[in-house]
Amino acid sequence: MAQQRRARGRDVHGILLLDKPAGMTSNVALQKAKRLFNANKAGHTGSLDPIATGLLPICLGEATKISSYLLDADKGYFVTIKLGQKTNTGDIEGEVIESRPVPKIDEAALRQVLDRFTGEIKQVPPMHSALKVDGQRLYKLAHQGLEVERQPRQVTIYRIELLRQAADEIDLHVTCSKGTYIRTLAEDIGEVLGCGAHVTVLRRTLVSGHALNEAVTLDELAQILEHDGVAGIDARLLPMDSALADWPGVSLSDDMVFYVKRGQAVLVPKAPTAGLVKLYGSKDGFLGIGLILEDGRVAPKRLVNY
Predict the structure, then answer these.
(1) Domains of the chain, with CATH numbers?
(2) How do residues 123-178 score in pLDDT, each as one tens digit?
(3) Which residues share a beta bridge with 250?
(4) Does the predicted TM-score (pTM) go above 0.90?
(5) Which of 63, 171, 190, 292 could form a disulfide with 59 if both were Cys (CB 3.0 to 4.6 A apart)?
(6) Are residues 82 and 171 in contact, defined by beta-carbon separation less than 8 angstroms?
């Protein structure tokens, strides 16, 4: 029997808050970070468009098991919206397909328009997106000149802050739920204003309570590695459970840990009565994610192993 191939790279576990540069895909940024850490496993938590910059959490090692929960997290964006022009992609990378004069609108009227997009709204996903329809990525269909029907999706815009208003540009800071397309928001605002619009600058500023000022660039990582070695860049990693900061935690006794690691549910006094929880052992620390069953027991849902 052939020996199983050993994983390449280091067993390094944690979450890197990366400040992605413009002009680079999220996957390329991921691969560059993975090489700097010489990690054997890595994954990002939701793509940023190539033109977009900012917060791209990258999960290394066992942290990839909780990456989907970061993907589901609320996010914040700084965006500059160009009024008067629509592009085929909704951003500055696309071709201008329509130009219209920009009406004069005072700040109070603009704020009223922005208020219309605050709260639960429905968005039609753009063709130039990674969403799948009938098993095919929309952007691949768009590159073939095809357009297919997309069903509106409900998202939540928690807040839109007007930062700057010029003759044909506005700067906003948007806090929103997962699945929100800022390009679509910009286009929809442009339609209400009667002039069309597209995104020229997009920078992600928040993910799951983490702010952009906590992030590090690829260049900074390379410099840290050169001067301080592997220990220096490892020090920039957040613990895995930081992705679940708002979740309730459940502490397990050594006996409970024994059974949970074998896939069995346990009864924990004073545990939450429903939902997902973080699991901790006195010796092992963070164990992973648990689920409260209907009978009140705590069952393992996704455990980490490191």
Answers:
(1) 14-72+210-241 (3.30.2350.10), 75-207 (3.30.2350.10), 247-303 (2.30.130.10)
(2) 876 655 556 665 665 555 556 555 656 678 899 999 999 999 998 999 999 999 98
(3) 279
(4) no
(5) 63
(6) no
Q: Do 298 and 275 contact (CB within 8 A), yes or no?
A: no
Per residue in 24-65, pLDDT tens? Answer: 999 999 999 999 999 999 998 778 888 999 999 999 999 999
3-state secondary structure 147-184: CCCCCCEEEEEEEEEEEEECCCEEEEEEEECCCCCHHH
Long-range contacts of 229-233 (CB under 8 A, 24+ apart): 230/10, 230/37, 230/38, 233/36, 233/37
Amino acid making up residue 306: Y
282 three-class SS: coil
Task: Show which residues are catalytic.
Answer: 49
Residue 103: other Cβ atoms inside 10 A: 11
- CA-closest candidate to residue 110, choices 42, 194, 179, 184: 194
